[in-house]
Write a structure and sequence with these properties.
346 residues; alpha/beta; seven-stranded mixed sheet; six-stranded parallel sheet; 13 helices; 15 strands
């Protein structure tokens, strides 16, 4: 089969690999229909994820058709079209029972990290019963790819961790696919104000089209004052979501949080970040961070099926699998190409 392989720093290659086989009664083999590239894949290529070593087939998102099933898999059948969760969950270990499958003792974020992932013609999914979701009829499988990771991450690590609730003021720093997914899911909780911050004017335009009340380019002079002035009394934001993963954006978030507010870190950080406790210790705030657990995937699928959620709104570019390297080039230079989520069709 053909697969997209991380071969060295900042390099991926389309290679021939052996087709995966069932290794456990809980496994499934899925033939991919659609996959995508995540910002985390770029962090792997940059060397920020030591657990992912050269030789790994990348990818932890996708939709496909079940080709074969282990004898212990229940609730799924050969031929089902399924959403692949970015998190593999055994469903029975201590972490899974705590609702925290990102730390599953036999799973977690392993696809495209410690085992071969979804940027291939076929993928082996361990613990398939808890890690695959049969797609409802009538939904677009291509759009559903955004529910593998971007929307669960935006909702769980962003919206919920930032304690968004009716009437809140919300700022999202970073208008990439996950930042915009956080914005879209935040709107479900009826905040009074949503502001999106980014360096890319095209992404800010996309944020406005998707429902942001205001957008601010972070190159703006005195950007902190500009943003705080949008909030009642200039006190800052109740809910602050960091969706980039660099020191400057996390420091900006610390400047923007209101007394009693919450900062939710979503970005993948590859270097140390300063935490200004000398400014924050008495402000009654919380700072929350986590790896997505994908426990909200069934809820997101119901919202998609009902028409409340439109994950396809993040899809901007499509590529065939033969164009996978071009897809990576486009995603790396997202600002140049006005790219959000890129889809690779197999």
């Amino acid at each position: 089969m053909k697969a997209l392989v991380y071969t060295s720093a900042n390099t991926v290659e389309l290679q021939e690999r052996d087709k995966p086989t069932l290794q456990s009664p809980t496994d499934a083999i899925v033939k991919l229909l659609h996959t995508t590239i995540c910002g985390t894949d770029l962090h792997i290529l940059a060397g920020h994820v030591p657990s992912a070593q050269p030789g790994r087939i990348l990818g932890h998102e996708g939709v496909g058709v079940i080709e074969s099933l282990g004898s212990a898999v229940v609730g799924l059948s050969v031929g089902d079209t399924v959403l692949i969760s970015c998190i593999t969950a055994c469903g029975s270990c201590r972490s899974c029972r705590k609702g925290m499958p990102s730390h599953c003792v036999e799973g977690g974020w392993i696809l495209g990290n410690t085992i071969d992932g979804t940027q291939a013609e076929y993928v082996r999914i361990p613990h398939a019963t808890s890690s695959l979701y049969k797609l409802p009829s009538g939904v677009d499988p291509r759009a559903a790819v955004a529910l593998s990771d971007a929307f669960p991450t935006g909702l769980e690590c962003g919206t919920l961790n930032a304690r968004v609730e009716p009437g809140n003021t919300v700022v999202i720093v970073g208008a990439g696919p996950v930042g915009l997914a956080a914005m879209i899911t935040a709107k479900l909780y009826s905040p009074s104000l949503i502001v999106v911050v980014d360096l890319d004017d095209a992404r800010l335009q996309a944020a406005r089209e998707l429902g942001a009340n205001h957008t601010v380019n972070s190159r703006t002079a005195d950007v902190v004052k500009t943003l705080r002035d949008l909030t009642p009394g200039g006190e800052g934001f109740d809910s602050v979501i960091e969706a980039v993963g660099i020191p400057a954006t996390f420091e900006l978030c610390q400047e923007l949080v209101a007394p009693g507010g919450a900062i939710a870190n979503v970005g993948v950080h590859g270097q140390k970040v300063d935490l200004h406790l000398e400014k924050l210790w008495d402000r009654n705030i919380s700072i929350n961070m986590k790896l997505v657990d994908a426990v909200t995937t069934p809820k997101l699928l119901r919202l998609y099926e009902s028409g409340t959620l439109k994950p396809g709104s993040l899809l901007t570019h499509s590529f065939s699998f033969a164009q996978a390297n071009q897809a990576y080039d486009t995603f790396r230079a997202a600002a140049k190409h006005n790219a959000l989520k890129v889809i690779i069709d197999l």
